[in-house]
């Protein structure tokens, strides 16, 4: 695996009005790796990813893309992807491809295992199929960095595994994949590096082995429990706003 930095995040904070959601987050992402962002509900994963892809402007700090200079540098699957109604899956990808000179829709659908749904209208896709179409959309134009926000959410176990295998295979093609997830088993199988967010700050980061050794455990669940404790409440930043 190459060790070139593709993304550098330096002291990034994001507030919404008076609500500080992420604070002073710094890390870098190496090319060709799968990096997982994990953390409890409300810890700031989506806000961090949206800031990294330029969907949100950081309140403080700098995000620098340092990968290859291509037409599309970062592909992004939002937590809830939306598509224009009336288009088929293939037409949706053809549309994005036409904007970027970004490749053959059939090949993009094949990459995520969605060829059989090519002619189905997007509003008639199942939740899992929508996620897969969103992942295909995120890879249009072959961006060196693909950011996937909970791509396996709502998918059955086989599909979740398929999505993570797809992500790992993409990273093997010299593409870097940054993925947020609550599925600890799949993160353990797939991730080269893990960033643990808690209350909007980086509580820990490193390879699985580094995290296991630091927290004297043999699972990510153990790492999370050591950081967050066992709780049945979602931490809500900024109170009840
Ligand atoms: N636009 C906004 N205005 C105010 N607060 C916000 C806004 N967007 C997010 N937040 C708050 O920021 C915190 C982090 O939310 P975020 O969606 O980033 O967390 P998350 O780790 O992705 O959660 P989950 O795992 O549940 O998807 C939450 O308390 C949320 O209510």
Question: Care to describe what's here?
Answer:
- Strand 8 (193-198) and strand 9 (201-206) form a beta hairpin.
- The protein folds into 2 domains: 5-68 and 144-228, Rossmann fold (3-Layer(aba) Sandwich); 85-143, no CATH class.
- By secondary structure, the protein is of the alpha/beta class.
- The N and C termini lie far apart (45 Å).
- The model has no long low-confidence stretch (mean pLDDT 90).
- 33% of the residues lie in helices and 25% in strands.
- The protein has helices spanning 45-52, 89-100, 105-112, 127-138, 157-172, 184-190, 208-215, 220-228, and strands at 5-16, 19-30, 34-38, 60-65, 74-77, 145-149, 176-180, 193-198, 201-206.
- It binds adenosine-5'-triphosphate.
- Adenosine-5'-triphosphate (ATP) binds next to strand 2 and helix 1.
- The site of adenosine-5'-triphosphate has 13 residues, from strand 2 and helix 1.
- Keywords: ATP-binding, Nucleotide-binding, Transport.
- One of its GO terms (molecular function) is ATP hydrolysis activity.
- This is ATP-binding cassette domain-containing protein.
- It comes from Natronomonas salsuginis.
């Amino acid at each position: 695996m190459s060790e070139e930095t593709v993304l550098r995040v330096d002291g990034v904070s994001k507030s919404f009005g008076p609500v500080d959601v992420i604070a002073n987050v710094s890390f870098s992402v190496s090319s060709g790796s799968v990096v997982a962002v994990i953390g409890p509900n409300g810890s700031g994963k989506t806000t961090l990813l949206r800031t990294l892809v330029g969907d949100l402007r950081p309140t403080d700090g700098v995000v620098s893309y340092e990968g290859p200079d291509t037409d599309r540098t970062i592909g992004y699957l939002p937590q809830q992807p939306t598509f224009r109604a009336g288009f088929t899956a293939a037409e949706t990808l053809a549309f994005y491809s036409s904007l970027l000179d970004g490749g053959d829709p059939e090949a993009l659908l094949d990459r995520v295992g969605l060829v059989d749904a090519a002619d189905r209208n997007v509003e008639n896709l199942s939740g899992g199929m929508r996620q897969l179409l969103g992942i295909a959309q995120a890879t249009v134009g072959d961006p060196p960095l693909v950011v996937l926000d909970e791509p396996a959410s709502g998918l059955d176990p086989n599909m979740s595994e398929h999505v993570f295998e797809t992500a790992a295979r993409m990273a093997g093609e010299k593409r870097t994949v940054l993925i947020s997830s609550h599925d600890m088993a799949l993160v353990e199988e797939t991730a080269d590096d893990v960033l643990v967010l808690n209350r909007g700050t980086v509580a820990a980061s490193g390879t699985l082995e580094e995290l296991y050794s630091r927290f004297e455990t043999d699972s990510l669940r153990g790492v999370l429990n050591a950081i967050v404790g066992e709780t049945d409440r979602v931490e809500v930043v900024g109170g009840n706003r």
